[in-house]
Each structure stands twice: as C-alpha cells, then as structure tokens.
Design brief:
Elements: E1 8-13, E2 16-21, E3 26-31, E4 40-45, E5 48-53, H1 59-66, E6 73-76, E7 81-84, E8 88-93, H2 109-119, E9 127-133, E10 140-143, E11 156-162, E12 165-171, H3 190-201, E13 210-214, E14 219-222, H4 226-229, E15 230-234, E16 243-249, H5 257-270, H6 284-290, H7 295-298, H8 305-322, H9 328-351, H10 357-361, H11 365-387, H12 397-409, H13 411-415, H14 422-428
Antiparallel strand pairs: 1-2, 2-3, 3-14, 4-5, 6-7, 8-9, 9-16, 10-15, 11-14, 11-16, 12-13, 12-15
Helix pairs in contact: 9-11
Amino acid sequence: MDQKKKINCCCLTSNITRIDDDEKGLHVDIHRGLFASNTEKSTTINNATSTTNNLNTNWYDQLLSNVRWHRVKYKSSRFQKDCTTPCYTAFYGGRPEYSPYIPIPQWFQPLIDEVNSHLGDHVQFNAFLLRLYFDGDDEIAWHTDGRTFLGEKPTIASLSLGCKATFEMRRMTNVWPCVNGSNNASSNNTTTNSKRAATATGVDTSTPIQSFTLHDGDLLVMRGNTQKHWHHRVPKEKGRGVRLNINFRYVLPGQDAEGGQMTYYKYMVFGDVPIDQKPPSWTYDEIVSKKGGMMNFVQKGVKCHGSKREQQQLSAQKREESNSNDSNTAAAASSSSSSSKESDIQSYLTSEQSVDREVFMSLPDDIREELVGQWKSQQNQQQSATNTISPLQTSSSSKRKESTQNVASSFERKTKNKKGTIDSFFAKR
C-alpha cells in the first residue's frame, strides 16, 4: 500500500531559509537580503555568512518617493462597527477587465519582473498590495491570504523593505473562524472552556506559533496549501522604524474574481468612498509631516531606513558639491565656514544628550543647520537672561542653572510645546 510522502524540513539553501511540513501544511521560503537597499549586503544566517550582490534599484526609496498611501475608513459588515486600517496601504493591478482597476505604474513594473525572474517562470503575479508601517504602532492582524479567486494553492510573495519586523504564523483548524466564537465557552470547567474557545476561534493550540524576523530586502514566499492551514500577522513592536511591505498575488479569471478584486480595492484604497470619487491619500513626506516632522528620525531608537533615505540624499548632494569648480578663494571660505559649523554641531550634540548622533549626522545639511540654529538661538536667549540677573537674584542662580541643564538635556521636552519649535518647523515644510 502506497503511503503519502511526508517532508518535514527546515533547511538553508545558500541564503534561502526553506520550511516544508506536509503534516502541518506549512510551506515557506525566505530569500534573505535579495532586494536590500544597500548595493551590497552581508547577511548572517545561522552563523553562515554570505554576501549578496543586490539589484541596482533602491526599491525602498522608489516606493517612498512614488506611492500615495491610504488610511482606509470603512464600516465593517462582519464586526458591525467603523474601522480604520491599522497601517497605510495602496493597491495596484488585478485584472483590467474588472472595476475598479489601478494600472501598474511604469516605475513599479521592473520590481515585478525581478521577483518573477527570481522565483521562476512558473510563478506570475498581477495584483500588488502595498503596506507602510510607519512605526511600531502600525500592525496587521491575524488573517489568511487564501481566496477562491487566487486558486487552490496560491503562491503569495511578500517583500520587506526598511526596518526589521516580526512576522508570525499560527496554525488553524479553521482559517475562517466565527466572529464571536470565544463567547461560546460558557462552561465553568476551565479546561473545557479553553478547548471550546480554541475550537470556536479555529486556532490549533497544539502547534507552536512560527516566528520569523524579516530584514530589509527579505522576500518571504508562502506556497502550496499554506493558506488553508495557517494565519499570519505583523504585530505591534515598540521602537520599530519605517517598514514597507509589498504583497504579490495572482487574481485568476472566474466567477469570484470581480467581487474579490472589488474587495481588495475597498479595503486598501477606497473604503466607503464611492469608486468614482478620489479617496484621501498622502505622500510619505506628507505622512512624516503629520507625524511630527523629522523629530521621528532624530530621537533615539527611531532610526533605521527613515534616516537612511535622507543620508542617500545627503551623499548625492556632497557628490555634486565635490564636482563643482569653485575657486580656491571660495573653497577656503567654505572650509572656514565648515569648521565653524562642525564646532557648533559638536557643541549641540554634547548639550543635547537625547539626540542620536548617527541619525542627526545622516540628515541633509539644511535641516541640520536649522536644528543647530534654533538651539544656538535658545542658548543665546538663556545666556542673555543670565547676564541680566541682579545681585539680589544671585542666590537662585544655581537653581536656574540646574533647570536650564534639565531642559537642555531633553530635546523632545525642550521643543515640544514652544512656538517655532522643530516639530512645528517640519510640519510646515
């Protein structure tokens, strides 16, 4: 009697992590660093280091420069409440014979071609869901990507760009559980309650959650019957910086495809806005301004690729300057001015302990000058106030000095509620 072949492995092939578990229905590949934003990236996997020569295009920068993002609002018929997507989204493609349909931008097509080429001719994609996780408060909840109009065993590719993030998968006994299933556990028996709740919510509690850390340029591919047995999510993570995700799918023609495509566009673009109207959208720079300006990239703990994009702009600016044919006199004057600016920067960074040096130095020159200029102006005002103190006020000078030091030690506290502060400056840019 023939037995079904069982494959259960978690192996590394070059810089590819591969999981094949027929018993649990889990089939996942992770291509490490394939589209990293650096021109060359050294990746360490289980103590095995490999160097990947990446493709020329910086897709992280391309997406931030070109995509208009949506924060979709809609009335959930399933949960009977008003909802807002928990991260920024966009959607391109699908089948052009169905409406709505947003054509794939010309600048985006090379990325599709590169992913298709890497995965092989047997894998094709025509629908693309883009997500922007601006910070650690953005998330996507447990769900399956399985849909009838994607086929029985859809291949779903997911590209991560920017800051690293946790990607979790949990096995399900039912990938479409009841909405309020956990309320069915009404018995006083705790064990029975747990079993009933697990059954109602469809979670296979006997199988541990799979957790992966996805880095810049990692391409995760879910294949086979994974979507029939597993949910996945990106949870909230304190301190996480900007992360982009592109989800690659293929919409098949058929009875369910038109409605399925309409659903994609509703929850990723339009929400409850009629499709013949223009839904609200923002560029990345507009979102940064809404979130409080470049303060997000200067404070400690929030750096990663939010500042890297600025660093690339700064590098390009420096290259242009180095290629200019300034006279020796102008060069000497520039050198003297540069020396003075460097001295001011060092004083600023020494005084403002809450400012991350690496992140600050990655900002463009004009932004750094604005930050240092505002700091110098405040320092001069404080010094002027100190010089006008009368002899009768000398006894309180030490307390005033201590207060000044406390204010200067916290960049965020010093600028948060004052007119003309850095936050308001960036909000106006």
